[in-house]
Structures are given as C-alpha cells and as structure tokens.
C-alpha cells in the first residue's frame, strides 16, 4: 500500500476506526488483516525475522541502527546477534522505532552517519 493510493482512494482506505485504537500493535493487527495478504502481525513479522546465522554470510558492509527504546523490536534481540565484519550494529539510547530526530526540521542523526559511511567506501 503506497501513501499515494491512500490519498487518492479514500473510499478504499478508511483509517478512522484504526486511529481510535490505543496502541500501535492493535493498529498493526487491523491494518495487516484489512490491507495485506498476512492474517496477523505474527505472520507479517515472521516474514522478515532474522534467525540463527542469517547475517553470517554478509559480503558487503551493513549497518543496523536501532534504539534501546524501540517499542516494536526489543533491543535484547540485537544483543543476541553475532556481530562481525562487515556488520556494524549501532544501538542508540533513544529513537523509538525510527525516530532519531536531531533537529526541529526533522533531520535525523543517522542521515549524516550514512553520508559519512558511504563517503568512506568511495
């Protein structure tokens, strides 16, 4: 589902009842059941869950950025990863589930980090 589709097809996408739910997990469940091929959030998350040695065969530099206060992915999951080159794991103390805001303009601290990382590869 693309944002453009939501804006241009209001008769198909009605989020009024979803916005009244009390937490993101409930919202996710309803969104997935209503607008995706997944039966529930468990099936959806299982689709991109990394298990075991899933990251052991990386051949390109890879950075995972997360935060200790992410309400969606528990930070404990990242502490269990086997981290070795070319994987870099950055666990920020704050940031939620992608809210690493560094200015009132909505800039994020990781934008600068990514630019620096890519420049280092050139």
Structural class: alpha+beta
Strand % is: 5-15%
- Give a short account of the largest sheet: 2 strands, parallel
Number of strands: 2
Order of helices and strands: HHHHEHEH
Determine Rg (CA atoms, Å): 18 Å
- The percent of residues in helical segments reads 25-40%
What is the general shape? globular
Outline the low-pLDDT stretches.
1-6
Explain what you see.
This protein has 122 residues and is of the alpha+beta class. It folds into 2 domains: 3-46, no CATH class; 62-121, no CATH class. 38% of the residues lie in helices and 10% in strands. It is built from 6 helices and 2 strands. It has helices spanning 3-8, 16-19, 24-35, 41-46, 75-79, 109-121; strands at 62-67, 87-92. It is globular. Residues 1-6 have low confidence and may be disordered.
